[in-house]
Amino acid sequence: MILRGCFTLGLCVLGLAAPAAAQSKGHSYGHYKHPAPPPQGGGSDSAAPAVTATGARVFGAWLDDASLMEPGDGMLSVSFGWFKSPVFREFDAPVFDGGVGVMRRVQFGVSVPYYHVSEPGGPVTRGLGDFLLSAKIQVRDPTAHAVGFAVTPVLEVLSSEPGPDVPRINWALPVSAEYRQPRWRAFGSAGYFSRGSVFGAGALEVAVTDRAWVTGTITRSYSTLAEDVGARFGLGPSRTDASGGVTFSVSPALTVFGSIGRTISKQDVDSASLVVSAGASFGFLAWKPYR
């Protein structure tokens, strides 16, 4: 759980920068968001969160915007990610993220990875990662107002028993904001993870052509748990990660993306010295809404 959680932070927060760009006009979701032109219409859903525990520390982070898919629109993202820390390596493939617009101000999302973890030269451990289920609720539409807002209740089901003091089912509550301009947009999230973490995250997305976007992200998470174990080993109570990515819209229904990032705060045993991720998102019509 420690290894898988740590990687999720790299893959889903650092790695999500790129796909965010391709969103819009309601054709979106995916590892972060996707297809169609830049930010002038519609939406997507979430970045799967990141939770990592070392000793008494728990870090969590979530990065999303305030846009939504149209009711009936769906998105499936298939990706991979590679995470390197000072003491272990992890390769997640495949990572599945999906979502669908349910009604005008609500969309549902789900995410699950398959992980491969090892120490350098050691045996590889494999398995299904933690299951994440989210419901994104738009409070204010960024296409109709200067700043848009959304709240995204998240349910996290751990894939293995975490220990006697940690429940198998946990929750998070991110609140997201988004500001749009014709060729760029800024968005970010802040919130709380029930496993013991508060966080803030932000991103800037810029259109470089009509079909390509670059995105930079930064996230900071602070563990709210007692730090007795972490302090004993010189581990810090907070963590800051950054990434950069690019997204290309192949067609209105297909987007490819890639990103690279790392932990830019103190390098602890579970810090990300390098995170690389890439994948593709596919838009589809789940059903034809009744008009």
Brief characterization of the structure:
The protein is mainly beta and 291 residues long.
What would you note in describing this structure?
The protein has three helices and 16 strands. Strand 4 and strand 5 form a beta hairpin. The N and C termini lie far apart (46 Å). The strands form two sheets. Strands 3, 4, 5, 6, 7, 8, 9, 10, 11, 12, 13, 14, 15 and 16 form a 14-stranded antiparallel beta sheet that branches. The protein has a two-stranded antiparallel ribbon with strand order 1-2. Helices cover 8% and strands 53% of the residues. By secondary structure, it is mainly beta. It has a single domain (2-285), classed as monomeric porin ompg (Porin). The radius of gyration is 18 Å and the shape is globular.
CATH class: Mainly Beta
Overall shape: it is globular
Number of helices, counting only DSSP H or I runs of 4 residues or more = 3
Q: Determine the mean pLDDT.
A: 80
List its salient traits:
disordered N terminus; single chain; two-stranded antiparallel sheet; mainly beta; Porin; 14-stranded antiparallel β-sheet
